[in-house]
Amino acid sequence: MPPRPIALTSGEPAGVGPEIAAKAWEALRGELDFFLIGDPRHLPQGTPIAEISSPGEAPAAMVRGLPVLARDFGPARTPGDAVAAHAPHVVAAIREAVALVRAGAASAVCTNPIHKKALQDGAGFAFPGHTEFLADLAGVKRAVMMLACDALRVVPVTIHIPLSQVPQALTPELLEDTIRITEAALRAAGIARPRLAVAGLNPHAGEGGAMGREEIEMIAPLIARLRGEGLEVAGPLPADTMFHPEARARYDVAICQYHDQALIPIKTLDFAHGVNVTLGLGFVRTSPDHGTAFDIAGTGRADPASLIAALRMARDMAPA
Fold it and tell me: What's noted on cofactor binding (predicted)?
């Protein structure tokens, strides 16, 4: 039985999603199979398109053009200018991709970037982003965001909140849940005994309480308990010494306490090829690690490298 294709969602039509989807097909045809759920009219002029009626037609269609499960999004696409009427269709494409993978028709979900304000304004989108929406669709209490490239994997415990709110949001329950979901997901991906490195919250991991007590009172006791259960978890570690090559060789994933603590190192190491992976859904979901890039949409300058990496990672992580 041939591998099932990956379902790629349209993302925000006014962004670079249509352009990088077309470029990804050009780069990956003959290597892996995927199909786009979206409006073929939104693709760049001249893109070879192979409209399909079901995911099973995608492998044969890849040789002719970008396979598209065509959906009418209404108005035409204007690069850089989000149209409210597109928003319900963007959301519907994500729902459909999840339904297809859960039904076994697709092997994984890969999502093009969305514009959250456009979805809120045009579709009443009630979620902070893709991760929370996917968790709701999957029927799980919480999903975890992991950013990955060849050099590094990072997981932020708290994500899109002001830095001033991080100490209050960072509870023992949230940290433990993040560690357990990450460890289980890495085992499911083929790492028999995942090594997790947990960063401290404060500079120098609190320096013995001189710069904060979260490490002493919460993080270290939790790590000790999890190690007692057999998890291979280290920390709390000073974040400023966790990301040089020798340190990275000692772990499989870094658990970071807030957004920038995780994203700055991975984007510094490999800005173009980072992939956003959602853990804990019960199916594979990846995404390029960038946004809609309205400022360059329609110019032909969009770099498909992160989407190509996301599609390859989806293929590699998806069950046979």
Answer: Binds 1 divalent metal cation per subunit. Can use ions such as Zn(2+), Mg(2+) or Co(2+).
What is the per-residue pLDDT across 124-148, written as a single tens digit (0 to 9) for each?
999 988 999 999 999 999 999 999 9
pLDDT digits (tens, 9 = 90+) for 33-70: 999 999 999 999 999 999 999 999 999 999 999 999 99
Q: Which of 26, 32, 40, 43 is nearest to 7 (CA)?
A: 32
Residue 259 annotated as binding? Answer: yes
The answer to whether the pTM exceeds 0.90 is yes
Establish whether 285 is an annotated binding residue.
Answer: yes
160 marked as binding residue: yes
Find tokens 């997901």 and name the residue: 185
Q: What's the CA gap between 90 and 67, in Å, rounded? A: 18
- Give the phi and the psi of residue 276 in degrees, each rounded to 5: -90, 120
Query: Helix, strand, coil shares of the chain as percentages rounded to 5?
Result: 40, 15, 40
142 is in an annotated binding site: no
CA distance 125 to 119: 5
213 labeled part of a ligand binding site: no
Distance set, CA 144 to CA 101, 177, 258 (Å): 19, 9, 13
- Distances in whole angstroms, Cα of residue 98 to Cα of each of 181, 282, 293: 20, 11, 25
* 116 marked among binding-site residues: no
CATH numbers and ranges of domains, the chain: 1-143+280-320 (3.40.718.10), 151-269 (3.40.718.10)
Q: Is 130 annotated as a binding residue?
A: yes
4 is in an annotated binding site: no
